[in-house]
């Protein structure tokens, strides 16, 4: 009985220590990312997460963590065909800290979006990059390379409604092309007519083009598909703004 008791006590102590160490890892996102990348050096996701965390805590190019972030994200891009995530992260970093984005990096990203399958997370990464450029947080002097990336993505994945919406945002904010943005959003709602948010995006662009009657019809279509009323407040705000203009 004493030996059994000591064995159980030792097992309990080992489990408690392991749990404590794991909790310490989880309590610090950077430490956790570092441990995971160390345990799984060939994992694209572990390297991507570590590179992302290093870029967040880095204070800029003079910080040693900046160079480590770039190297880790490069490793993540090499380790997987699903490399849109690390490549967009590299563009983010370059646009925030460098004078310009390396043309070779744009070409790599264009090749990455041309692959047969594009994961939802990769589409979200493209949205985040376009949003960063549109809000002028990312200093991309010439939007043409990013436009080529989106054009390639649309040619390779012509049935992805979300990509058309992302390209429309870029066309509108970076080039001021209201008509081009409207055409892209019309294609998006044709592919996904049940997406209430896409109809709202189309309505906004139509209003910018001075097509208020068509904009109101698009809002009505949004309401038709928004059965839970998630976008009701947004529609009301738009209608009120249009009535005052």
Low-confidence stretches: none
Give me the number of helical elements.
Answer: 13
Q: Label the overall shape.
A: globular
In angstroms, what separates the terminal alpha carbons? 85 Å
Major pleated sheet: none
Radius of gyration: 24 Å
Strand proportion, as a percent range, falls in under 5%
Structural class: mainly alpha
Let me know the number of strands: 0
Order of helix and strand elements from N to C terminus? HHHHHHHHHHHHH
Instruction: Name the helicity range.
Output: over 70%
Round the mean pLDDT to the nearest integer and report it: 87
List the helices and strands and how they pair.
Elements: H1 2-27, H2 29-39, H3 44-57, H4 64-79, H5 84-97, H6 103-113, H7 120-134, H8 144-156, H9 161-175, H10 178-191, H11 196-208, H12 212-225, H13 232-244
Considering the chains and any ligands shown, give keywords for the structure.
245 residues, 0% strand, mainly alpha, single chain
Question: In short, what is this structure?
Answer:
77% of the residues lie in helices and 0% in strands. It has helices at 2-27, 29-39, 44-57, 64-79, 84-97, 103-113, 120-134, 144-156, 161-175, 178-191, 196-208, 212-225, 232-244. It is globular and about 75 Å long.
What do you see in this structure?
It is a single chain. 77% of the residues lie in helices and 0% in strands. It has 245 residues and is mainly α. It is globular. The chain has 13 helices and no strands. It starts with a helix and ends with a helix. Helix 1 packs across helix 2, helix 3 runs antiparallel to helix 4 and helix 9 runs antiparallel to helix 10.
């Amino acid at each position: 009985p004493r030996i059994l008791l000591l064995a159980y006590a030792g097992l309990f102590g080992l489990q408690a220590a392991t749990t404590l160490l794991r909790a310490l890892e989880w309590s610090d996102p950077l430490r956790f990312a570092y441990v995971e990348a160390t345990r799984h050096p060939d994992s694209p996701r572990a390297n991507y997460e570590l590179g992302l965390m290093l870029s967040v805590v880095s204070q800029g190019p003079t910080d040693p963590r900046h160079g480590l972030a770039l190297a880790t994200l490069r490793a993540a891009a090499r380790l997987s065909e699903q490399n849109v995530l690390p490549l967009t992260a590299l563009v983010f970093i370059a646009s925030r800290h460098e004078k310009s984005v390396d043309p070779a990096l744009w070409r790599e990203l264009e090749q990455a979006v041309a692959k047969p399958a594009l994961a939802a997370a990769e589409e979200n990464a493209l949205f985040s990059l376009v949003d960063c450029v549109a809000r002028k947080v990312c200093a991309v002097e010439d939007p043409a390379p990013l436009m080529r990336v989106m054009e390639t993505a649309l040619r390779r994945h012509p049935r992805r409604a979300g990509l058309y919406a992302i390209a429309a945002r870029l066309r509108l904010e970076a080039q001021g092309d209201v008509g081009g943005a409207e055409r892209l959003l019309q294609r998006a709602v044709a592919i996904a007519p049940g997406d209430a948010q896409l109809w709202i995006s189309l309505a906004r662009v139509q209003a910018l083009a001075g097509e208020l009657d068509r904009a109101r019809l698009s809002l009505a279509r949004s309401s038709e598909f928004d059965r839970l009323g998630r976008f009701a407040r947004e529609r009301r705000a738009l209608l009120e703004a249009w009535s005052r203009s």
